Amino acid sequence: MKEVDGSPETGKEDLDPALRLEAERQLRAVPQALDVPNDPAALRLHAQIQEHELHVHQIELELQNEQLRQTNLELELTRNKYMDLFELAPLGYFTLDRNGVILEVNQTGCNQLGLMRERLNGRRLPVFVQENFRTHFAVFLRRVFETMQPCRVELTLVRQDGQTFHAQVDAVATPTLEGTPPHARAAVTDISPLKEAQEAISLLNTTLEERAQARTAQIQELNDELEALVQSVTHDLRAPLRQINTHASRLRDAAGQSGSQTEQDVQEVMSAVDHLNELVGALFSYFKAGRQRARFFPVSLERVMADVRKGMKTELQARQVSLTQDPLPTIYGDGRTLQMLFSQLLSNALKFSPADSPVQIRVSTQENDREYLICVRDNGIGFNMRHKDRIFGIFQRLHQEREYSGLGLGLALVRRIAMRHGGRVWAEGKEGEGASIWVAFPKEQGQHGQKLNQTSLQGGKTPTLRP
Q1: pLDDT band at 394 (very low <50, low <70, confident <90, very high)
Q2: Which of 262, 270, 265 is nearest to 242 (CA)?
Q3: Three-state DSSP state, 56
Q4: Does residue 117 belong to any structural domain of this protein?
Q5: Which of 22, 98, 361, 428 is least crowded, fewest Cβ atoms below 10 Å from its Cβ?
Q6: Greater confidence, 134 or 179?
Q7: Are residues 169 and 212 in the same domain?
């Protein structure tokens, strides 16, 4: 401190003139304190009050300083915590400008690109983008700053040592202080393991699909050979059967005596030949139905059932039949073979219902997420559930032929047609209480990739679903 004209100086030349002028202006704006009293006692009291006020202000300042130190400490701890999270995050965090220049990067980002922070800051991130992705990244970066919305892109990055890795970049542009351009914060995720897993799954799916196609082709070839064999056998059997029938007729005529043992034997031979002819014809029809080319279109089962009922009008009117049905859906299938399926189901219900009792046949529908379920229930003789697996077999009969005629081929044909439509069949029943034959058709046909809208199941509450 120095004196000028006997007054102390505080180094005015060291102060900012503008700050001094502002301080003087504020000082002049403060109202002047009350005049100091001349009375010594009052003067001492005034001094004591001023001293007390100074002590109070000093304590307040110390408390404020302590609070400020505590706040600064908490801020420092918080900053260190988030810096640790920033540095040790499993993602690479980058701060970029509009040109992709790296302004800030965490340690994970440094490890991803294989360079120290000092060598990354100031460099352009597009330099580390694989060449065929650079235009794509430039468009992405421009979209980030134009939309100011979170954006995502997948590309390939190149490390300093030349190794590449697949990366997912999520970025969003954020405003900065007034007068400074915005920058983008980008998170870079190494998705190489995910890509490798996807490629492995894709390769596995391709391999499985090829194996499935090869197995399907092999099965189809074996099935074609089997059907060709059956057709050949059934065709070749017809000629010898006709010859046996012809010679048996001649033997019967030569026997002469009506009711003789020889005539009876010949008659049994001829009956057996006729039955064998029926079996051969049925087997031929069964395999022929499977080989016929099916044309799949949306088919209304309501219309199919109407055609079946019209075709069976004579059979239905010949007996006391009560046939009721729920609204039926539209499925993807072949109308001709579906008509054959429902015809076999109704014929089966009629056949195994006592001829001297009223027949009740109920066609009901249910559905689940994947299938439409059609049930044809009758009040006939039913069956023992122990034989439920035999009921759909070729030439499988659960009752004596003298009681119920037929070759045991109807439900086998139902199963074959349902399987051609990607469906399934099963049966439920109880002896003396009727039977229920279930057919499930898929809502989504795999080979066509279409899902039909429900067009007929209207009204009424949703029924309980069957397995």
Answers
A1: low
A2: 270
A3: helix
A4: yes
A5: 22
A6: 134
A7: no
My answer on whether 416 and 299 are in the same domain is: yes
Determine the 3-state secondary structure of 128 from DSSP.
Answer: helix
Shared-domain flag, residues 163 and 308: no
Do both 307 and 437 map to the same domain? Answer: yes
Confidence of residue 466 (pLDDT cuts 50, 70, 90): very low
Tell me what percent of the residues of the chain surpass a pLDDT of 70: 70
Indicate the DSSP class of residue 256. -
Q: Which residue, among 153, 142, 132, has the nearest Cα to 96 in the 3D structure?
A: 142
Under a CB-based contact definition with an 8 Å cutoff, are residues 322 and 358 in contact? yes
Residue 74 lies in a domain: no
Residue with tokens 């706040």: 71
Could you tell me if 135 and 146 are in contact, meaning their C-beta atoms sit under 8 angstroms apart?
Answer: no
Are residues 331 and 430 both part of a single domain? yes
Q: What is the CATH number of the domain that holds 258?
A: 1.10.287
Full domain range(s) for residue 97: 87-190
User: What span, in angstroms and rounded, lies between the C-alpha atoms of 159 and 48?
Assistant: 74
Residues sharing a CB contact under 8 Å with residue 465, sequence separation 6 or more, in sequence order: 366, 367, 368, 373
> 58 Cβ partners below 8 Å, 6+ apart?
none
Phi-psi region of 397 (alpha: psi -120 to 50; beta: other; left: phi over 0): beta
Per the structure, the count of domains in the chain is 3
**pLDDT (tens digit per residue) in 167-222:** 999 999 987 777 677 899 999 999 999 999 988 999 999 888 888 888 888 877 77
- Bridge partners of residue 299, in order along the sequence: 331
pLDDT at 13 over 80: no
Residues 328 and 412 in one domain: yes
Residues 438/373, Cβ–Cβ less than 8 Å? yes
pTM above 0.85, yes or no: no
- Residue 131 gets the label, from left (phi > 0), alpha (psi -120 to 50) or beta, of alpha
